[in-house]
Amino acid sequence: MAKYSRLEVADVMKNTGLVPLFYNDNLEVAKKVLKACYDGGARLMEFTARGDFAHEVFGELNKYALESLPGMIMGVGSVTDAAAASRFMALGANFIVTPVFREDIAMVCNRRKVLWSPGCGSLTEITRAEELGCEIVKLFPGGILGPGFVKAIKGPQPWTSIMPTGGVSPTKENLEAWFNAGVTCVGMGSKLIFKDQEGKYSYDKIESLTRDSLEIIASLKK
């Protein structure tokens, strides 16, 4: 069962402004990535479940977070149907993120009062998601739609909370463009979860990038 209510999760998203996201099928590697983000100040993690037996890795990773990383809120991304959403919620997922907008996922998450963030690419999809109780909409693909799209949405719908994923990087210029456009938070993957030239995770770099990104975001939210 989820440990945090959807409003608690939404508040942490709004207050910190950053949701790191990654996937790795090796539990020990996943723990080190999660710990690096946590030590950098992140208090949310979206585990993008894109591989076979991803639910098993997530279940153990969530247990690790509960035991060793106080205040870390674990969620699952790349969820494509209600059955998968239900499985991950049974493993303690505190939020569900999807690449597309699906009403069946909305219903199972709402039933358990778990925050869900659907991938939307139009104002019509965003409005429908909000009508079904969505607190924070995932703008996807963020790199294609861009900050200008966010700014245009916030004009007629200033109440809409948006989290772009894709096209977000840990630089002041990039983050400034998104937050000045009016996003609530950002989802950041490969640009934050850094790998060296040999394709291995650099945990110290992940920690420092996370810390620097949070500091930039905090300054932009003032």
Radius of gyration: 16 Å
**How many extended strands?**
8
Number of helices: 9
How far apart the termini lie comes to: 35 Å
**Shape category:** globular
Order of helices and strands: HEHEHEHEHEHEHEHEH
Question: Which structural class is indicated by helix and strand composition?
Answer: alpha/beta
Biggest sheet architecture: 4 strands, parallel
> Average pLDDT across residues?
96
Uncertain segments: none
SS strand fraction: 15-25%
What share of the residues lie within helices?
Answer: 40-55%
Strand order of the largest sheet: 3-2-1-8
Can you describe what's shown?
The protein is α/β, with parallel strands linked by helices and 222 residues long. The chain has helices spanning 6-16, 27-39, 54-68, 82-90, 103-111, 123-131, 142-154, 172-181, 203-221; strands spanning 18-22, 44-48, 73-77, 95-98, 115-120, 137-139, 162-164, 186-188. The protein is built from nine helices and eight strands. Strands 3-2-1-8 form a four-stranded parallel β-sheet. A four-stranded parallel β-sheet has the order 4-5-6-7. Strand 6 (137-139), helix 7 (142-154) and strand 7 (162-164) form a beta-alpha-beta unit. The radius of gyration is 16 Å and the shape is globular. The N and C termini lie far apart (35 Å). The model has no long low-confidence stretch (mean pLDDT 96).
Show the helix and strand layout.
Layout: H1 6-16, E1 18-22, H2 27-39, E2 44-48, H3 54-68, E3 73-77, H4 82-90, E4 95-98, H5 103-111, E5 115-120, H6 123-131, E6 137-139, H7 142-154, E7 162-164, H8 172-181, E8 186-188, H9 203-221
Helix pairs in contact: 2-3, 2-9, 4-5, 7-8, 8-9
